[in-house]
Amino acid sequence: MFGKYFYNETIRKTVIAFGTLFNDITIKHTNDTTDAVISTIKVPIAYGPMQKFLARIEQQPNFNKNVAITLPRLSFEIVSYQYDPTRKIAPITKFCIVPNSSKNKIKKVFMPVPYNIGFRLSFATKLQDDALQILEQILPFFQPSYNVTLNMIEGHDEKKDIPFTLSDISFKDEYEDDFNTRRAIIYDLEFTAKTYFYNEIPTDETGGIIKKVQIDYSSAIRAPREVRYVVTPTATKDYNQDQTLALAATLEVGKTLMTVTSGASLVVGQYIQINSEVMRIEEKDNVSIIVARGQYRTAEMKHSNGDVINLINAADHALIEVGDDFGFNSDIDFFQDSKFFSPSQGTDQ
Amino acid sequence: MALNNYIGLTGARNEQDLAQSLIDEHIKIHGIEFIYMPRTFVNTKTVMREVSSSKFEKSFPLEGYIENYEGFGDQYNLLTKFGVRSTAEMQITISQARFAELITPVLQREGGLGIEVPVRPLEGDLIYFPLGDIIFEIKHVKHTAPTFYALGKNYCYVLECEMFELGDEKIETGIGEIDNDFATLGYNVTMSLSGVGATATAITSLVNGGIHKINIFNEGTGFTADPTVLFSKPNGTGRRATAVAITTSNSQGSRSLQEFRITDPGFGYTTAPSITVTPVDGQGGGVSLGVGIATTGAVGIVTVTVGGLDYILPPPITFTSAPSGGVTAIGTAILVNGVVDRIVTTNAGYGYTVAPTVSVGAAGTVGVGTFKYGMILTGSATSTTAYATSWDATTNTLTAKDLTGRFSIGELIVGTAKTTGETIAYRLNSINYNDDETNLDSYGDNVSFQSEGDAILDFTEKNPFGEA
Question: With contacts defined as CB-CB under 8 Å, which chain B residues touch A51?
């Protein structure tokens, strides 16, 4: 009824993110007098629920265990799902995500639905001191939440900060009663993960990023355009690695005279990139070029004889990706031909 | 009202002995042989009142009668959020007399439990049940059951046991079937080792008129550290000799001279030079020394040409024998990080006509030998210790428990057997602090979370919790 099959593995990713937070906790036993370390234990963690037969054959392959259990252990599980109305966004709103395979393309998808997933982290220890060591390694990071940035959709540049909020701590230390029952120390920490569930992600790109903005001005409503303002982005770095020419001599920091193998393809005012430094061509005399160093906030650096020179031109402007820094080209045109712009035709009529 | 002196329940000594003997015999006929392991307290935490570290290194075979005639019950294996937990319980009846006869005297003789030597089985001690290959922990000892003061005495202990929960307790009983169970249970690190030691080489030359040896007539006293040594210069052309003094602890609680190591015998001495021993802090003195010089053919400065690799102990230094009438030099190697740093002589010899050949002992037994369960492991650079739990000689893979810190890649892992003092060493290539794969319990998923998380998590700066 709802459409095609899709599965974004959001819950599984949230489980992994939660498990990763606590997979490197260690406890140490020290000598009370000398403080010398006696032993170190890395606390194992696992997602609690599992297939029963798998647990039996993995953890008790020989019918009996040699011991009851090894401790300490960390375990966690999902305990609740709850819609979070405080993060609600208009349900028919769409937004754009960018596929990793083509960063100058976008896909339009519906806004994700906000849900809170409840997690319970439990740990069992033999000693109260072990439990306190674990607890004190966890609590300082949750005030009361800790944000984890998650790549929500595989193959796409869609990151979300997922706060894991510590909401409650409870524990039991059963030490009273008869001597036949062993002491049990178990702590339960309740967390809430504020995550999002995404709708189906289209397999094909639905459009590119906006590369041109054109505004027509007129003196009255429905009057012919008289002034046109057009803005297009310009790349501030080289994208296509055109390797048009190369340096014919070393270019030191602070020097502006550059010698190239051939100056034919260079024009004054053009930007070029050598290694990671962007320069602007100020003057040109055959193979001797005067440049302005360190353009677009790049750092001046030494370049060696033979280093490749890449041009920053229209080919690079077309390759600007979502999220990149870029500059602008603006054109202003004046008209007296009484024409209108037709968006559907893309021409003046 | 006084008790009847002729007929009563208090019993006579011989009646009590008879009852005890009958019970002992019954247990021997119908019981099985358990292994009793008393707990050694390694460290006790104050305030929280916990024994935070224990070990079980003593074991005693002891017959006992199993009271659980219905087995462990139906539901003693449970799947919990922490994995599979066994809740098997067992009640074992043992003889009070046999315990007092077999175990108490040995514990009293050997001691070392970290607590007062017990005269009864203690709660917290372990019992190995050989038929099920299971370790039980004594939760409660009943001393009045099942014969409540019959004939005025109790004859049995009933040990109420639950299966043992393993933390970081060290279990080294010397009984293979017990120790093997713990090799891969609990937290282990896995080390990949290798070892190819290289032997050092050295050369020397001859000097005339050099220091031959320094005789200690009176080793002095009161030193707190090794004093400095200064020789007088040769009278004519020559080079001043140098040496270092080595001290050792004495019975007065301070230090006295033990030996001199000649770092350079000098040359050109025609008469014995004077030697001045100066304490570094002004404390100590009273030494009386004699310096001998070699008119011809003493061993000069020994130059280490190749320092070698992976020495654990200073190797023996051998000089080829001096010709008849001469004295063969004696040398000592000084190690720095397993490499021969320098070679000094305690006797530079004399009478050599050609420079002797210096032979340095081979680089120990690095890369050779078998780690055994319980061997104490020490990192040569970090001094981190642990104990070995298993060793795969095919892949040179060692697992270990109870690390006191972190080992450093490239350092030597030296294993020392507790009883024989045997040492073996290998070089550490890599170490895995996760035990997901080696732990027989197969519970932890730390590594899986890490590898899966790396693909979806964006810790642009750093994961504050660390990475497995």
Answer: none
